[in-house]
């Protein structure tokens, strides 16, 4: 019995080991009792040879006494039956004690990984997420449970590490513009000979830094909003068109594309979907913005939209620096820019992570393919507007 102590009276509760032992004991004792009963009945039937003799047959015993054969038979049957019953009960008791003790030991050994799971779960904390059960016994259900628990800990540990990196990177990204603003203000205020031009220059730097911080905060809010609505739990659903969002994004980036003298190829066919228009517009804007930002002079970018009966898609590709295909999944992590973390590159590094989160919220997928001559092509696929919304889905980053 296991005693669970609470704030009130202690409560006795049978453990799984004890219940398995009792079950094995009941089955063993029941089987032994049935065998003893069968033996008793068989012995009683077998010890009746006098039934074949003529009535009145006399049997002479070794001590010289004579007795009726049938009366002698009844005495023999009763004596042997009592002896069989007595010895059988003793044997059944011994077998039951040994069997129950063995069942208790075997159940304890079989359930040992469960105790390891319990003790590991009790020890788990942020500083002990590296602990695992590492069960090495037979390949049975217990091994499957232990392996599943270890795999769950791997996922939780990875999520914690990703969360730590996210917080650290977000702190760094926010601290940088704040440090720039404070430095500029302190330097300018300490200069007694600073004129209006110097103050204007300082104000321009502070404005740019504050805009960068504001854009980062906005991106973090969009990312948090998108991840909170994962699995098609959208707070807002309305008919919208991916082609409309792509067209608006192209218009917003037209000046920058013209400055870089980019060749822009578009094929914007209707791509109706149902979802959050603001998030979908941000998705298209991030893809087009990245295609322009990470392009090169006289480069090329292409934007295509379309749909069929089942799904709608948005494809945004661009030329640019070379990207290894093995580095592509990392681009969808927060604060990753072209496979590099928190460099001096432009942008906050949240663009593709927001795209992934928005796809997840709408039950879609996002895949990216590195171009052989440099650049990246990203394809977003969402359920078409006239299809039944999926209850749960995940955005898959394809290789």
TrEMBL record:
Domain Histidine kinase stretches: 169-386
Molecular-function GO terms, alphabetical: kinase activity
Keyword Nucleotide-binding on entry: no
Catalysed reaction equations from the record: ATP + protein L-histidine = ADP + protein N-phospho-L-histidine
SMART domains membership: HAMP (SM00304), HATPase_c (SM00387), HisKA (SM00388)
Transmembrane segments: 21-43, 84-107
Keyword Nucleus: no
Entry's EC annotation: 2.7.13.3
Keywords from the named record: Kinase, Membrane, Phosphoprotein, Transferase, Transmembrane, Transmembrane helix, Two-component regulatory system
Domain HAMP residues, every copy: 108-161
Record's protein name: histidine kinase
Species for this entry: Plantactinospora alkalitolerans
Taxonomy of the source species: Bacteria, Bacillati, Actinomycetota, Actinomycetes, Micromonosporales
């Amino acid at each position: 019995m296991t005693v669970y102590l609470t704030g009130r009276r202690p409560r006795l509760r049978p453990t799984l080991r004890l219940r398995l032992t009792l079950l094995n004991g009941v089955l063993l004792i029941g089987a032994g009792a049935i065998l003893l009963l069968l033996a008793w009945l068989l012995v009683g039937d077998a010890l009746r040879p006098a039934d074949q003799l003529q009535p009145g047959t006399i049997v002479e015993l070794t001590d010289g006494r004579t007795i009726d054969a049938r009366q002698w038979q009844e005495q023999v049957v009763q004596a042997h039956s009592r002896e069989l019953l007595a010895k059988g009960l003793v044997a059944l008791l011994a077998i039951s004690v040994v069997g129950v003790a063995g069942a208790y030991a075997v159940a304890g050994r079989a359930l040992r990984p469960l105790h390891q799971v319990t003790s590991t779960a009790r020890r788990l904390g942020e500083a002990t997420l590296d602990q695992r059960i590492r069960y090495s016994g037979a390949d049975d259900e217990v091994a499957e449970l232990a392996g599943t628990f270890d795999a769950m800990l791997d996922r939780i540990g990875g999520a914690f590490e990703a969360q730590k990196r996210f917080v650290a990177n977000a702190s760094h990204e926010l601290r940088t513009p704040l440090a720039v603003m404070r430095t500029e203000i302190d330097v300018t205020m300490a200069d007694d000979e600073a004129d209006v031009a110097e103050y204007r220059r300082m104000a321009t730097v502070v404005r740019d830094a504050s805009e960068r911080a504001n854009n980062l905060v906005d991106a973090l809010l969009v990312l948090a909003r998108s991840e909170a609505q994962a699995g098609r739990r959208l707070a807002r659903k309305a008919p919208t068109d991916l082609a409309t969002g792509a067209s608006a994004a192209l218009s917003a980036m037209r000046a920058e594309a013209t400055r870089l003298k980019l060749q822009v190829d578009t094929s914007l066919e209707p791509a109706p979907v149902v979802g959050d228009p603001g998030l979908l517009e941000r998705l298209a804007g991030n893809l087009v913005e990245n295609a322009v930002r990470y392009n090169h002079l006289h480069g090329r970018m292409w934007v295509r939209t379309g749909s069929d009966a089942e799904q709608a898609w948005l494809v945004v590709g661009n030329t640019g620096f070379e990207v290894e295909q093995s580095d592509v999944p990392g681009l969808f992590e927060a604060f990753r820019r072209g496979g590099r973390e928190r460099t001096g590159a432009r942008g906050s590094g949240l663009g593709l992570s927001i795209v992934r989160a928005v796809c997840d919220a709408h039950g879609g997928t996002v895949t990216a393919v590195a171009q052989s001559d440099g650049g990246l092509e990203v394809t977003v696929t969402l359920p078409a507007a006239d299809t039944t919304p999926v209850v749960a889905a995940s955005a898959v980053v394809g290789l």
